[in-house]
Structure formats: structure tokens, C-alpha cells
Design goal:
The protein contains 25 helices and no strands. The longest helix has 30 residues.
């Protein structure tokens, strides 16, 4: 029987130091201040208040600012077309939510039942994607607010004003579109080229793995921007096709990089500096929207890896410098990843995935249980302005936003910090026109603090919500302590009913996702060397892209799991070396394929089958245990063959998966 591995902590704890899963969330991220977003937030939340005071309707201004707050939180995209969807679609769900909440305001147990059902729907649609997750969040949040706060009559006033706030943010966001229409997409693609240049500079060094991860993240972002824009356009605009072709031209460079890295390490000679310099020149060309004949001064290639880099770089240069062509002139090679499916097909697939997904139902039921308990509790026990309990549960119980346990703790700490800011404001600032400059200052903190971490975002949002609530309730300083109690109650409900009662919360999903990635890697090995004659090369490109995107998801899950308390956090830490090993296996496979394409002898099918079998056996071993287990690697072959570096990486991975 396999023996469990002995798990060790990443950092030995000391008696006086707080646990790492908590300090990770309290440590501010080193991100720059998004000044444009700061300015938009300050204007979008303060201007409606000024208008409301000017027309003697401060409650109306507060509702518009609430809608603007939702738009500011949801404005996380780079491309303008994506911003329309990231802001507009959630606002529609938010308007629906406040309408339903208003209709059951003061209805007792009917309100409990309706909000519980809305929570189920909100949780299920949150599994679709980023926009759907924010839409589900606003659907539930605004329903809770509508059911807990008296809204102005008639019933359509509140949803109209909240939607108007989102429109204000959207208009402010799109002001730069006429001048910077495709700039975010071009900047992202150029950034990917610069990341590739840094990757070539790191070839043969210990920094290569880190640079490869940066390239994967940059490439994912670029494809998300470009493909999302293309999916929303009818036809194929020449400028967009050209940008996509430039992005696809990165793929041969990425395929050549592992071969260059292995060769640089083997011969202890880095790549000539002319190569990364040429890649950076291509990035500058994309940024400045230039075209014309490429000017390349590259050293003469000698080895297969050098020939692969040279060919990939010359191909990328020809694509980047090529003038835009008509859509009818585009060849099949300009779109290696395939066009998006039709809208009706994507909607049908998404609906089927949501309704038939176990994870979707599981999260929906968890959220519905917690919201039902919170609403039932405040119905049985008189809690002033009790809607804050359900709001806290909604914010905390978002597994796709991070660890539920750490978010609950960070939410409590962030709320306490926000109340320290809000208390002097509510106590010393008289309600009226003074609220406008105060709101301008507080609103500016939201995008500035949101990038630093969840606790900081909570601390920035709390005083804004309290100030807006006071304009509707006129409770002043009396809002502060009830908000703290309500937040603590909501965090406790989320921890008990949304975390502790679900055994899956105590385990990390890193092993399952890593097992899937290893199995997909085995398929990639077979596809790279045993594909039938005439097979579409784009199929291999798509498989490799899918693998790296999967590994990026594994990394995200790993980072999320590290914020969980023991034992989940310790178990996740144990899987980290194997995650690195799997990425190296993918790189070694690509490097071997590139060497074969540029003159190296192809491996025998039996060698390929042996490597594939070892990987599939490793994947099954990972699925069968929650901890690392002992495995045996019996993998031989031609030590001078093209697959030897790949076999070494597989042996290393099998050795890691041992006590």
C-alpha cells in the first residue's frame, strides 16, 4: 500500500508570528495606483449626490451613487468593448434584484423564501464566468438591499436610479474610446512580445520558469481581450484580424523557447542579445502601429534549437510588419486557435453546463443555505437594519473570489478598519453639501485600495456604504456599532454554514486539477509525436495553449488554497514542486517536437508510448490520494535521443510524487 508523504510547511512558524494564510491577505499587493479609475470613482459617486442636493432629493442622489458604486467595483476590464459588458450586464441584474427585493419588503417569511431562491440562482450563474459572477453578486446584493431598506415610490424608481448610476460610470469609462479605441488590445499584445523577449533573455538560467509564467499570464490576457472583442463583432474587421495574426505569431516563438532554454543550459551559453532585442523591436512596432519591411540582424543559426528560434522570429517579423489585408485575403494560418462558436451555441453550452454541473448546484445550495439562515435569523431576532448580515454573507461566500475562511476573517478586519474611517465622518460631518467633497475623497480610495487586497477593499467600501445608507436612514453615528455586529454575525454564518458544514472546504482541489493537467500532458505527448499524417498542426497549438491555461488555473487554485487554514494550506504547499515539474514536462515535450521539426531524428513510437504511459499512471496516482504517494519510475530509452530531456523531467516528476 502506498505510504503518504510527509508534508512540510513552506515557512517554519514562530510562536509570536500570525499564520501565513492570514498574513498573506493582510499584506498589501505592490500594485500601482490606477489614477484614471480613482478619478472616475470620485466623480461618479460624488456628482449624483451634488445633483440630489441641488434638486432637494438627497435620497435619489444616494441611490444613483449606490448604482455607481457597483459600476466602479465591476470596472475591472481593459478593453472598452469588454467594459460595456462588465458594467452594463451586471447593472441589469442589479436592477432586477432591487425590483424583486422591493416587492417583498416587509413581507416576513415570504421575503426569506424569495431571497433564498435568488441566492440559489445567483450562486449557480456565478460559475459561468467573470461577468456572470459579478452579475450574480449584484442580483443578490441589490435584492437584499431592496428587501431591507425602504425605497422611494413607485416601485420602478429604485431600479431606475441604480441603473442610472451604472450608466454614469459607463459614460465616464468610455470617454476615451474615440481616442484610444484599440489601444488596450494593442498594448496587451505588445506586452506579450516584451514578455517573450524577457523569456529569451532568461533561457538557460534559473529565472526561466518565472519568466515563462509571466508569458503565460500575458498571453492569456491578450487572447481574452482580442477574442472577446472579436466574438462581439459581426464579420472580420481587417484591423482586428491583423492584431490577432500578430498575437498568433507569438506561438512559434513560445514553442522555440523551451528548446532554446534546454540548449542554453546544456551548452552553458545564453542566447545572443540580438534575439530578445529583435522581439522588443516587434513590440515597439505593434505599439506604434507601424508597418513596412522588417529589419532583422540575427546571428547565423547552427543547432536545431537556434534554427527554430531564427525561423520563428523571422515569421513573427513578417507578420508584424505586414500591412493589413482584406478579410477575404486572410489565410487559415492567421487564426490558429479557431473562431468563437455562434452566440446561440455558446448560450446553449453555458446553460447546459450550469444546470448539469455538480459544482454549480453545490455552490448555489451553499449560498442559499447561508442567505436563508441569515434572513431567518433577523426575522426571529430584532436586528436594526438587518440587511447588512445578508450583505456580509454574500460578499464573503464567493469561492471564485478566494478562500471563504480567509475572506470571512479579512472581511471582519476590513469592516473594523472601515468603521474607524466612517465613525469620525458620521459624527463630525453634517449631512448636506459637505457630503459631496467627503464622498469624493472616500470614493477615490476604492480603486486605489481594491488592488491592494480584499481587506483593504472592504475597508474602503465600508465608509462609502455607511454614508449612503445614512442619507437614506438618517441614523448618523448610530449606524457604526450595528454595522460591526451585523458583519460579525454574517461572517459567523458564512464560516459555519458555508464552510465548516461542507467537508469539501477542508480539502484542496490542487491534486484533482493537477491530475487532469498531467493526463492532458500525456495526450499532448502522444499528439506531438504520434499524430496521423495530414493532421492539422493547429490542433497541437491549441492543445499546448489549453495546457498552459490549465496550469495557470492550477496556480490560481494553489494560491487560493495557501490562504486556507491547516490542513488544506499545508496540503497545497506539498503539491507545489509537482506543479513546477508538470510545466517543465510540457516545455520538454515542445522542445523535443521543435528539434524534430528542425532536423533531429524522430523518436520511436515505443519511446513515446512509454512516456505517455508513465504520465497517465502518475495522473491516476494523483487522483487516488489526497497526499503525495510513493511511485516507481521505470523509464528507459536512447540517452542520446530527442526524448531524453523529456524522460528526465518525467523521472523527476515521479520522484517528487514520493515520500
Amino acid at each position: 500500500m502506498a505510504k503518504p508523504a510527509r508534508l512540510t510547511r513552506l515557512t517554519p512558524p514562530t510562536r509570536l508570528s500570525p499564520p501565513s494564510w492570514l498574513t498573506a491577505g493582510l499584506r498589501p499587493q505592490p500594485t500601482p495606483v490606477p489614477w484614471a479609475a480613482v478619478l472616475r470613482a470620485a466623480v461618479a459617486l460624488s456628482a449624483p449626490l451634488a445633483v440630489g442636493f441641488a434638486v432637494d432629493r438627497p435620497a435619489y442622489g444616494a441611490l444613483v451613487s449606490m448604482g455607481a458604486l457597483s459600476g466602479v467595483i465591476g470596472d475591472t476590464a481593459d478593453a472598452y468593448r469588454m467594459r460595456i459588458f462588465n458594467i452594463a450586464v451586471p447593472q441589469l441584474f442589479g436592477a432586477l434584484g432591487v425590483t424583486l427585493g422591493t416587492l417583498v419588503f416587509g413581507q416576513g417569511w415570504l421575503a426569506v423564501a424569495v431571497l433564498t431562491l435568488i441566492a440559489l440562482v445567483s450562486g449557480m450563474i456565478s460559475s459561468i464566468g467573470a461577468v456572470a459572477s459579478v452579475s450574480g453578486l449584484l442580483l443578490l446584493l441589490n435584492a437584499v438591499v431592496g428587501a431591507g431598506l425602504p425605497m422611494p415610490e413607485p416601485w420602478w424608481t429604485a431600479p431606475l436610479l441604480l441603473t442610472l448610476g451604472g450608466v454614469v460610470v459607463l459614460v465616464l469609462t468610455l470617454l476615451g474610446w474615440p481616442l484610444r479605441g484599440g489601444a488596450p488590445e494593442r498594448t496587451a499584445v505588445a506586452g506579450t512580445y516584451r514578455a517573450v523577449a524577457a523569456l529569451f533573455e532568461a533561457a538557460g538560467s534559473d529565472a526561466y520558469d518565472e519568466k515563462r509564467q509571466a508569458v503565460t499570464a500575458s498571453l492569456n490576457q491578450s487572447y481574452d481581450l482580442v477574442l472577446a472583442r472579436r466574438a462581439r463583432q459581426h464579420g472580420r474587421a481587417p484591423g482586428l484580424v491583423r492584431l490577432l495574426a500578430r498575437l498568433n505569431a507569438v506561438v512559434p516563438l513560445l514553442e522555440a523557447a523551451p528548446a532554446a532554454h534546454l540548449a542554453a543550459g546544456r551548452f552553458r551559453r545564453p542566447l545572443p542579445p540580438e534575439i530578445p532585442a529583435a522581439v522588443r523591436a516587434l513590440a515597439d512596432t505593434i505599439d506604434r502601429r507601424r508597418s513596412g519591411p522588417p529589419e532583422l540582424t540575427l546571428p547565423e543559426p547552427r543547432r536545431p534549437s537556434e534554427r527554430a528560434v531564427d525561423a520563428a522570429l523571422r515569421y513573427a517579423a513578417s507578420v508584424v510588419h505586414e500591412p493589413a489585408r482584406k478579410p477575404s485575403e486572410e489565410g487559415a494560418g492567421a487564426d490558429r486557435l479557431g473562431r468563437p462558436a455562434a452566440l446561440r451555441v455558446r448560450v446553449r453550452r453555458t446553460g447546459r453546463a450550469v444546470l448539469l454541473s455538480e459544482a454549480s448546484w453545490r455552490y448555489g445550495l451553499r449560498l442559499a443555505l447561508c442567505i436563508g439562515l441569515s434572513q431567518a435569523l433577523v426575522s426571529l431576532i430584532p436586528v436594526p437594519r438587518s440587511y447588512w448580515v445578508a450583505l456580509t454573507v454574500t460578499f464573503v461566500l464567493k469561492p471564485d473570489f478566494g478562500s471563504v475562511f480567509s475572506r470571512a476573517v479579512l472581511r471582519a478586519l476590513g469592516t473594523a478598519g472601515g468603521l474607524l474611517i466612517a465613525a469620525p465622518v458620521l459624527a463630525a460631518v453634517p449631512r448636506g453639501w459637505w457630503d459631496v467633497p467627503v464622498m469624493m475623497l472616500l470614493a477615490a480610495l476604492i480603486p486605489a485600495f481594491s488592488a491592494k487586497g480584499y481587506a483593504f477593499q472592504t475597508a474602503a467600501i465600508t465608509p462609502v456604504i455607511l454614508l449612503l445608507s445614512d442619507l437614506l436612514n438618517h441614523q448618523g453615528f448610530d449606524l457604526v456599532l450595528p454595522r460591526l455586529y451585523d458583519s460579525l454575525i454574517g461572517c459567523a454564518i458564512a464560516l459555519v454554514a458555508g464552510y465548516l458544514l461542507w467537508p469539501e472546504s477542508w480539502h484542496t482541489r490542487v491534486a484533482d486539477r493537477l491530475a487532469d493537467a498531467v493526463a492532458d500532458t500525456a495526450g499532448y505527448v502522444a499528439l506531438a509525436f504520434c499524430a496521423p499524417a495530414g493532421d492539422d498542426p493547429a490542433r497541437r497549438h491549441r492543445a499546448r495553449r489549453a495546457l498552459y491555461r490549465d496550469m495557470s488555473a492550477v496556480r490560481s487554485e494553489f494560491q487560493r488554497a495557501l490562504t486556507e487554514p491547516p490542513p488544506a494550506g499545508d496540503l497545497a504547499a506539498a503539491w507545489w514542486p509537482l506543479t513546477i515539474a508538470v510545466e517543465r514536462i510540457v516545455d520538454a515535450t515542445t522542445a523535443a517536437r521543435i528539434r524534430v521539426d528542425h532536423g533531429a531524428p524522430a523518436p520511436e513510437p515505443a519511446e513515446v508510448a512509454a512516456v505517455e504511459g508513465q504520465l497517465r499512471e502518475l495522473a491516476e496516482g494523483l487522483r487516488s490520494s489526497q497526499v503525495l504517494v510513493e511511485v516507481h519510475a521505470d523509464l528507459g530509452g536512447d540517452e542520446e535521443g530527442v526524448l531524453e530531456p523529456l524522460r528526465q523531467e518525467v523521472r523527476a516528476a515521479r520522484a517528487i510524487a514520493s515520500p
